[in-house]
Amino acid sequence: MIGFDLIAPHLPVLTVVVPLIAGFLTPIIGWIDRRLPWYWVVLAMFVVLLIAGNNLVTVINSGTIQYKLGGWDPPFGIEYVIDLLNGFVCLIIAFIAFMVSIYSKESV
User: Fold this and answer.
1) Is residue 98 part of a domain?
2) Which residues pair with 66 in a beta bridge?
3) Is the residue at 26 inside a domain?
4) Kindly report the CA angle at 76 between 54 and 85, in degrees rounded to 5?
5) 51 and 18 in contact (C-beta within 8 Å)?
6) Neighbours of 18 (CB within 10 A)
7) What is the pLDDT of residue 3?
8) Which domain range does residue 54 map to?
């Protein structure tokens, strides 16, 4: 798939960016309709869960993922590294966040 090939190298950083964007847009979506933010958050957490699972599979198959933010090398830039332990912990956290978002409908 052409679309996935373009976004696949950026999946590691999307585990951080997707919740930030979703958190920013949730109140704005709440102005449109009071019922929509719950669906929006569940969708965002499901996307993060899929990305975390994909990152873990990539680490298992290919080894450690190193993502240089902004293309800068580590002495001057930030390098985001996902190894086997980080990938597994990220998957567990994404799963817990997804389950919490599902069961939070009563409080939203």
Assistant:
1) yes
2) 81
3) no
4) 30
5) yes
6) 17
7) 67
8) 37-108
Q: Is residue 14 part of a domain?
A: no
What does the H/E/C string look like for the chain? CHHHHHHHHHHHHHHHHHHHHHHHHHHHHHHHCCCHHHHHHHHHHHHHHHHHHHHHHHHHHHCCEEEEHHHCCCCCCCEEEECHHHHHHHHHHHHHHHHHHHCCHHHC
- Please give the pLDDT value at position 37: 94
| Domain annotation covers residue 70 | yes
Who contacts 87 (Cβ-Cβ below 8 Å, separation ≥6)?
52, 55, 56, 59, 60, 65
- At 79, list the tokens: 């390098």
Q: What is the count of structural domains for the chain?
A: 1
- Taking only the tens of pLDDT, the chain with its 108 residues reads 566 777 778 889 999 999 999 999 999 999 999 889 999 999 999 999 999 999 999 999 999 999 888 877 878 888 889 999 999 999 999 999 999 999 998 876
Which residue is listed with tokens 């001057």? 76
